[in-house]
Amino acid sequence: MSIWEYANPKKFIATTTPLVPWVMGLAIACLVVGLVWGFFFTPDDFRQGSTVKIIYLHVPSALMAINAWFMMLITSLIWLVRRHHVSALAARAAAPIGIVMTLIALITGAIWGQPMWGTWWAWDPRLTSFLILFLFYLGYIALWEAIEDPDTAADLTSVLCIVGSVFAVLSRYAVNFWNQGLHQGTSVPVATGERTVSDVFFVPLVICMVGFGVLFLGLVLIRTQTEIRARRMKALEARMRS
Amino acid sequence: MIALLRRDLALAVRAGGGFGLGLAFFLIVVVLVPFGVGPEAELLTRIAPGILWVAALLAALLSLDRIFALDFEDGSLPLLATSPLPLEGVALVKGIAHWVTTGLPLTLAAPVLGFLLNLAPSAYLWLLLSLALGTPALSMIGTFGAALTVGLRRGGLLMSLLVLPLYIPTLIFGAEAVRRGADGLDPSTSLLMLAGITLGSFALLPFAASLALRVNLR
Question: What letter would DSSP give residue A181?
Fold first, then answer.
């Protein structure tokens, strides 16, 4: 028994199909509890008023936007090393979710920034690096779409993902060097354990972050299954034609 | 490797087109900018470092799809892949050849175009230096992009989409170096970072490019 057994598409589908309703149920429960608690049962911030509540969408989506790319990096590496098709398909499945998370983070950020900073957009390091991340996702998805042969596409996108990761990190630091900005530092630093968000806001925020994480997991599972089935259908069609 | 480099350079020079085209493009972009933003000298002085860098970057981008496409079409790329020279070496040489045919002329032409944009006098040296340090990275990153998209029919546009985000760090440090030079500040941090990106690209990207080439030739 090893984790690589799930690299078998059949086994993967058989195992994940009963899991999906539970995962999605948990995601919906977390999001409903977190968002309702966050939106209606937390006090307004004394300076930001009720706009502070955008945090419950903004921070979790930003978190997942980065982690989705990270997951794609890992699955790409697994594909290149061990040639498991499920791994490549999971990377493909995660990309559109990642780009949507990036967009949510950017848009909620703009909506939040307008009343707080008086501007929809600023060339701030954090904002800029998210825009760059968005471009990376765009290129990655475009490369997947452009190549017909699935194995070639998986190989090339994996290489792009790895090189892109290096340059994305590089861009992050370059952008920091380029401009000091409006955006505050991280509110929930994992390493130090200190945080600048008070407990009233923090608990629902954590629930929302968990909810977004589980939602991402559920969506990736569903989309990976879809990709596997689409691949099977193509194989069947090819067999019927021949 | 030397023979391949010579061949590529000879092809680039004799085929015309690509060699001068990048330079012409560079010139045209720089000429267009004053029409777009107006002819005030102070404004041009302020934006000149950035414009020169962006224009050089776009000019380098323009000729990227020629790196592998011609060899792929006439079948010499599979020959190169089966030659005793490792494919990583081929990718490296292709990157160097691209730099010699586009990056180097762009670097040398940039100060002349700097006059057109009223670049601050103290910035010329740094413009030359930053382009000389930074354009090799552009060529090598571009070689990787070209290797990724070599098998595609409409690869050019897709390649720009893939390559441009990878150019961002180089652009930031390059333009920053010139800007600091123009303001009389010390640009050495940016230049060091630029050199680091270039050396890093030359050390690592040939491997990624050759991996992509192998996949595309499979």
Answer: -
Helix ranges restricted to H, B38-123: 41-62, 66-73, 76-82, 87-98, 104-116
Q: If you ran DSSP here, which 8-state letter would residue B84 be given? A: S
Is A15 inside any structural domain?
A: no
Could you tell me how many CB contacts below 8 A there are between chain A and chain B?
77
Find the domain containing A63 and state its range.
20-180+199-241
Query: Could you give the ipTM of this predicted complex?
Result: 0.84
Dist. CA B174–CA A72, nearest whole Å: 30
- Inspect the interface and report whether the beta carbons of A167 and B165 lie closer than 8 Å: yes
Residue A190 placed within a domain: no
Do residues B45 and B182 lie in contact, with contact meaning Cβ atoms separated by under 8 Å?
A: yes
B199 token code pair: 């050396």
Structure tokens at A14: 């058989």
Q: Tell me, what DSSP letter sits at residue A190? A: T
Q: In angstroms, what CA-CA distances link B71 with A148, B8, B75, B94, B217?
A: 22, 10, 6, 11, 12
Residue A139 lies inside a defined structural domain of this protein: yes
Longest distance between any two alpha carbons in chain A, whole Å: 70
Flag whether A207 is in a domain: yes
DSSP H or E stretch at residue A239? helix A199-241
Note whether B173 contacts A156, CB cutoff 8 Å.
no
Mark yes or no for CB contact A143/B148 under 8 Å: yes
Task: Name which of B148, B189, B193 is nearest A160 (Cβ-Cβ).
Answer: B148
Per-residue pLDDT of chain A (242 residues; tens, 9 = 90+): 577 777 788 888 888 889 899 999 999 999 999 888 888 877 776 666 677 778 888 888 988 998 999 999 999 999 988 888 888 899 999 999 999 999 999 999 888 888 877 777 877 777 888 888 999 999 999 999 888 888 888 999 999 999 999 888 888 788 777 766 556 665 555 544 455 666 677 888 888 989 999 999 999 999 999 999 998 998 899 899 87
**Domain count within chain A:** 1
Check B162 against A139: CB less than 8 A apart.
yes
User: What pTM did the predictor assign?
Assistant: 0.86
User: Considering only CB atoms, which chain A residues are within 8 Å of B166?
Assistant: 163-164, 167
- Cβ-Cβ contacts under 8 Å, A162 against chain B: 208
Residues A165, A152: Cα–Cα separation, whole Å: 20
Domain ranges of chain B: 2-217
CA pair distance B45, B178, nearest whole angstrom: 11
